[in-house]
Predict the structure of NKPD1 protein.
Amino acid sequence: NMKRESERREKKYPPAQKKGSLWNFVSMLVRMIFYWPKWSDKHKERKNVQYIFIRFNAWHFTGTDKLWAGLVITLCQSFQTTFGSFLVSLFRTAQKIDESVRKTIKESRETEWIAKKICCFPLWLLTLVSAPLVIGLIAAVIIVGFPIGDSSGDGITAFESMAIATLGLPAAGAVRFTFLLSKNLMFSQDFSIQRLMDKPKMSAQLGFMNEVQKEVEVLTNFIHFMEVYNRRNIRVVLEITNLDRCTPEKIVGVLEAINLLLSGENVPFISILAIDPRVIVKSVESSKSFEGMDKNGYLFLNRIVTLPFTVPEMEISSKRSVFRKLVECQSEFSEDDQLEESQENSNKAERSQVFEEYFMESGISCESQIPLISSITDRRKQNVTIQKTVKDLIKESLRVISDEGTEGNFNDYLMENSIHMRRIINSVRVSVIIMAARKKELPQAKEVAAWIVLANQWPCRLSWILQCIEDDEQRAEIDKDVTGEDSIDETKCLWDVFCESRIELHLIKDQIKNLLEMDGDPELFEMFLKKDFLFTIKKANYLKAFTVNLDLSIKKDLEIICGSKSLKDTIKSEVPTPLKTGLVLKMNEDDVCNEMKKLKFCETNADKYMKRIKENHLDGRALLFGHNSEIKNVLQMSMGEWTDFSIHFLGIKPAAVCPARDRSPYLMSVQPSSISMENLSVGESTRA
């Protein structure tokens, strides 16, 4: 879009110079050697603009001590590629802008170009005057020869003085200029920065940042020169990717470099950060640079990023389109299939001819070798059939995921991240190949696709279910002498297994926080197993042997945390599942009563409890923010029923809320005798 906009403006506001012309190049050299450009605010008002795109992959420079220096090196190399090494080196040689030059440019009345002066004379005028004299003197010496005579003579002395004055100073200046230009051509900006980085302890010194900043100023001045000469605005768009794959210290260094080196009022750089904010924020907060400071990574990013732009969520049709393109790009069965078939047919013809010649030379009839030939042919046909079946199953599995309207819609479960899509595509192929290699009965395409997506989207919860199944099988084997059964019910659905063990998962959620963060939306997980894809224990035991995209170390960690004996041996299986705090907070009194019916209390007791809930106005807010002891006294429940009620509505360990008078400075001045809550219900007093 930026390129198209630039082209549109170029047509509407054509530049003054034509690209690629010889006169344009010579004119640029003359301007660069003999003039200073005067860049002012009026140049910002020009409509035409040229964008230069530079991509910086932070991962390529992660081995350096200073990652941000690699950013500047990439800038220098891209400038040399775009504008040419000669022009950049000539600018570094001829356009050394210091404070005195800036003062001269600012005080000048010229609009765009200011002539360089020596002793109040323009440099271009001195060059025009001295050039003919130098050329004429050299020509005279070549034609006539250098005068020979008494060195004490006045004529010879005067001629020598004139020759030194004419040739000496211009020649010295030309030699110096040529030497600096050659030096800058041989030792470019990126080479100079790399040489500074290679010096021992140089990259850790403050002087290194100063040297790099000087190189950035040279690039900025070069862009301003080109803007004045070409009569167009130039913006360098720096795309920074893979920064979230680097270490925290290097991430902070790059962000600070962007803030210090590539930011400013007249800086022509536009930095685009393609990052995952969660990773960047955690890296910033864990960096040693923020020790002793208020560690807030979001505030740090807000100070640097001027336009935060979150990529909108991809539409379902776009997801399917991207997935199909990835399948086509990674397809292995398009042109290769036709090539293999043609080679196979030619090989068959060659083999049949060899067999006939061998039998004729050996005097053996072909009929006696029919069983041998037929067995080889049957085995080959069988292998070809298996290969064709594998290819068809892979294609069908991938088609089921990407097509709309297929049985078992995958649109809601397919992530928009292309990396996750590639994992699914590769996992489907490898898993099906392993199934065929083990000579197992191949499942349906829908089952293969659903299982791969399940393992890719919710690895922790799937590992938990598989661990629970394994524990149940081991427990059944141990208790078979008592129960008489040495196996579990394999027709049970995975969702039922998860429901029976979710309270145990809730108990250890703090220990497996990092594992749970790998999973997708929990509600989608419930919809996946409960509604769309009803996997059984038998099918899970079959498919887990071919699952390549599920990290087995997750299941091992869960096994260690749970211990050798399942936690459900110490927790009653009838313990109710805790409700989410947000759900309880929205409940009114009737909702609380309806939810309490699910606890299956005694009908007589349940009626009493519901009556007390309504009398005391115990809605969701009163339950969450009230004192548990007060709620228990009001409801007058038995110990067991109160345990079930508190777990279901308040969580495993209800946290008591500190009294408001201990927190609010306004309530501390109120006398206790002035507050009367004797006639208030528990719910009303809690809200008060």
About this structure: The longest helix spans residues 154-186. The two ends are 58 Å apart (CA to CA).
